[in-house]
## 1
Amino acid sequence: MATIAPTTSSTALADLVPRLREICGEDGVLTDLSRRRVYESDGLTYHRATPGVVVLPTTTGQVAAVVSLCAEHGVPYVPRGAGTGLSAGALPHAEGVLLVTSRMRRIVEIDLENECAVVEPGVVNLDITRAVAPHGYYYAPDPSSQQVCSVGGNVAENSGGAHCLKYGFTAGHVRGLEIVTPSGEVVELGGKATGAHGYDLIGAFIGSEGTLGVATRITVSLTRSPERTVTLLSAFTSMDAGGEAVGAIIAAGVLPSAIEMMDALAIEAAEAAVACDYPAGAAAVLVVELDGPASEVDAQVERVVALCARSGAFETRTADGPEERALIWKGRKSAFAAVGRISPAYIVQDGVVPRTALGEVLGRIAALSAESGIRVANVFHAGDGNLHPLVLFDDSEPGAWERAEEVSGAILDLCVEHGGSITGEHGVGVDKACKMPRMFGEADLETFELFRRALNPAGIANPGKLLPTPRLCGERPGVRTGVHPLVESGEAEQF
Amino acid sequence: MATIAPTTSSTALADLVPRLREICGEDGVLTDLSRRRVYESDGLTYHRATPGVVVLPTTTGQVAAVVSLCAEHGVPYVPRGAGTGLSAGALPHAEGVLLVTSRMRRIVEIDLENECAVVEPGVVNLDITRAVAPHGYYYAPDPSSQQVCSVGGNVAENSGGAHCLKYGFTAGHVRGLEIVTPSGEVVELGGKATGAHGYDLIGAFIGSEGTLGVATRITVSLTRSPERTVTLLSAFTSMDAGGEAVGAIIAAGVLPSAIEMMDALAIEAAEAAVACDYPAGAAAVLVVELDGPASEVDAQVERVVALCARSGAFETRTADGPEERALIWKGRKSAFAAVGRISPAYIVQDGVVPRTALGEVLGRIAALSAESGIRVANVFHAGDGNLHPLVLFDDSEPGAWERAEEVSGAILDLCVEHGGSITGEHGVGVDKACKMPRMFGEADLETFELFRRALNPAGIANPGKLLPTPRLCGERPGVRTGVHPLVESGEAEQF
């Protein structure tokens, strides 16, 4: 497979600046180093680069003009939403344009009759729900960063969240896209009505991390708010017992909106940070959320409580008021930030295994941890087998990062070995591009490459992301703090 | 946009036959004219062509070898499942290979723990449900041809069915594909585990009508059989009142598994054919099916009955036993074949409108019918706005087909005008390839073309389907009976 790696000189870029200003206006183009540096990474701060120039377009026309200009001059560009991604999918190009969509934040239309909304890419995920909640609707995909992340970024990364188990990823909630292709053309994919027609490129575009273009308008499905939501917290004396309960719930035909699992180390961290008061002595807890019509939810709660007990739960709490529910979620949601209290640094891994392989893989992770002496905390979406192991290390200790990275990489290998995936919901970006061959054969990767080249022939759209660039694979990133400043402060919950 | 239209000489094809026999065996290659003629059309018999040669591979390796041979010699090939499609997507190429998957009909694996099955492309849709029903599961996509159509064909056309409203199209139920690309490579897309990784080409492949390759192994999701299913038949004195009821049901937050609607002409035809005993004097009937947990379904039935009454229903019947339910469905399912009783010939159109535009579009169709003097019967999936107008004509009358075609085409224009689509579930095939520009702009079609060329650069994979081939657009098909022999005999219910 050949390499796509456009390069451009800073001079070429400097020549474009006056034309970028004509397109986006004076305040829509940032050239000062200090202002450009703000954008040097997304949520994965291992990887950093200062963008050559930053543009902040406000319309589709401006995006198309910027991209056309880049195409004309062979200048790479990187699209960026709110910058909360966790795979360096929005890592800037030092000699390229960073195209930030944060000023495109209009909710263009709310169409309740057709149960959809049309939004610009910079709209914050939760703002859709805020706008439609009074009418009894919400926007279902809920990455933990939903208070700050943008819908455009969600489209680029096919973002999921705790409630994916029942409601699916972003791809399941987007009906239509207006995109600007890497040649600067404006193309419509899909629309309000359902039905197949032409190639359904929406699915392929969603999760393409900006390598196929920029979404400038997004038609999303709205979901009815459930009549009742109940959250359960169930405590077990072993991870195995918790895993057994997960299997039993699904096998019984109950489909919770979320099943989250935490191990003892994660519980310890959460307890230390937010005093969430989870049952003492738990080696594993499950957070199970059930939503839907009241009568049905009530019946399911009874079943889940019984199934957890049968799998060995020593305590199960049930909460149906918003405050009680928030209390249960508090421990789960704070767990990532909380790990900072018990370890100076950590790597968050993101992998998937078929749900039935969870027990086996968790056992192997525990063995890996024991062998290497590196602690691993597990907080994850158990229902859909989306693991988020936290590999703890001390970044002041020489070689510690490397050893942690090795364990973290071995966990991904385990996922692939068991028929899973190297990423569940954080995307590939720069971070995992080199790991794609662990999962895909040469023919698979060539097919991806053919597809990328079809829409992005010059390779100027977000180069180096998603697919391996052989020249770059093998190199290690320079900066390794591993923790996003927002995560450290507990403001973001991106997992 | 440039044309992709490979041609080959019969001589070139004849030279390949010995090699095809080496690959597929003696009985896997058909060259006799009489045997080839069997495959001259799919369910849309307007379009006919005798394939140059027919191959019946039994393994992925054979498919890959056949396709590689075609690629090597620039010979076009057309994949075909059970041949029940309704857009001439499997129309053979007279100088090409017809690659029939009907001998690849193994259910490779049923994995109940992961709620999926792995099947070969020739497996009959309903056979998946038959295999898993004893375990409390079924395969949700239910084209009316499900007793005979193949899963591979369903993937090629992204087939839907009456229960798409709640359960979605084929694309929503396929987790993984093994495909043979037009260059003969075997590529894996997706798998059992959920999660985004690489380009999600599954969605783009599903509905690509064989232009991007052949699916040789398909991993489908299994759905839990609902605890209760209730079917309602509600009769109205006007289509408007029926349409109002549809809107009211959805607005109330009830999501039936199906909402089907029939107008007076369709009811008359069904009554004449199968004596379904629908309420006398109905100008419109709705068939509404509700499924799910018993307690929830019971509550929903009450609501739907009340909402229909409020919209003016003069009678609503409720059926929860399998025989009573079948009786209600009998009229609906026989309607297409039944129309043959009241008209010598007819065209089945397939278009989509946003549900909220249904009333307006049905009114315009009635006006079109009145102006042209051509009768149009309406039987359709009202819940998701998927219209199936039956345009009736007398094929013995000169010019009648042309006038019917004009009305049929005008109906599609109405769909597009109202933000809908030129096809809901029958696909584009040859039949609607020339109509794609009514719906897509030049940039959109160029994007599709770029994508097709990426995977199918020589254009040998199912040429002339899905995208317009300018040279061919404007010509009319030669044969115009309009009715599939199976439909005439009432054996197939493909709508």
## 2
Amino acid sequence: MAQQERAVKTRRAVLEAAAVVFAEHGYTAATVADILRTAGVTKGALYFHFDSKEALARGVLEVQMDRVLPEREIKMQEVVDLAMTVAHRLPEDPLLRAGARLSTDPVGRRQYGSAWPLWVGELSAILGEAHRRGETLAHVVPREVAELMVGSLNGVQLYAQMESGLRDVEYRVSVLLKHLLPSIASPAVLMRLDVAEDRGARVLAEADREQGEESGQQGQVAVPA
Amino acid sequence: MAQQERAVKTRRAVLEAAAVVFAEHGYTAATVADILRTAGVTKGALYFHFDSKEALARGVLEVQMDRVLPEREIKMQEVVDLAMTVAHRLPEDPLLRAGARLSTDPVGRRQYGSAWPLWVGELSAILGEAHRRGETLAHVVPREVAELMVGSLNGVQLYAQMESGLRDVEYRVSVLLKHLLPSIASPAVLMRLDVAEDRGARVLAEADREQGEESGQQGQVAVPA
């Protein structure tokens, strides 16, 4: 394995270990020693990438949205897909759970920030494009709706986490979207949206296939060259 | 002051002090010593009412909904009034803030429970009555909507707390209601609802006046008797 590739893998392993520890214990109670033990890397390797607990928290927040999803003809479907794939990933993805917990820590976030501006920015951009294409109702203000969605999605996820250990998070996010979207999307768009509970799983499987095909094609191109 | 009245006042002072400490430090970091210092009562007085930190947390959760609001001809307005008065009280009411924080503590709530079942129960009851009276759309399931509202309201409040120190919480709750209610209430009911940002302040002023009149009347009856 090339040295750079190894460094990328180590960095990722450290971030995932940090996420496990932050999601479980919260920022204040977490220690770099815990993260070191969970990651199974040397102290030198960890400090090469992150020089403090704060840097680890920032690192975890930065990779919240590294999953690329398929583009859709209807932009409002991309809003749904973002929410439903996050809901699907939450139970198995400590990075997302740590992001949610770090973003609601009133003391810690003064130091390392929050994942919310990233999510609000991403959703604002998609909703803004949907608005320009006439997919939304006339009164919709993209940024206002983006902030509303980040706040309410976070609340519904937290509710699912507390009440069912996230077992019903996809159902709850789907219920939220079914109740919010009629005030956001135009009727003609609304009836074309897929907000089923299993939407997140299907979109992620599709994204995996697309990525597999891409690296497959790259491989085919690379070999004869 | 009668002994019983004094006991009620002491109990309330202890609960409010506990709420201040829980809201600020969270359940795990809070100590009975902190609460004692904040309450300014004797150790004996505190332990007479609450024999542990856990009992204090339970006490705080039990008084979350002790504010009686005026009844309305349209039951859906009572749903709005509940949400908007909570939003208005949050910045000044440590009991509500502590209730929110205690309810989202994954470790603590295994011991003392959560305020959410109380809120879901109250909202389910009002929504159920609204449903029977034909104020809601046909597909509405009162309990599902009650859980959705508790989760999303909590999320939006948390968002306001983190992003503005609760300064814009009434605006954010009003935005949430404006986006949720069209999927819940029938159009004829919808156009009669008051979901303005200052609704909470007006309803609480009205409730104060009603209570003042009641105790005034009681006084008038008591004097000549």
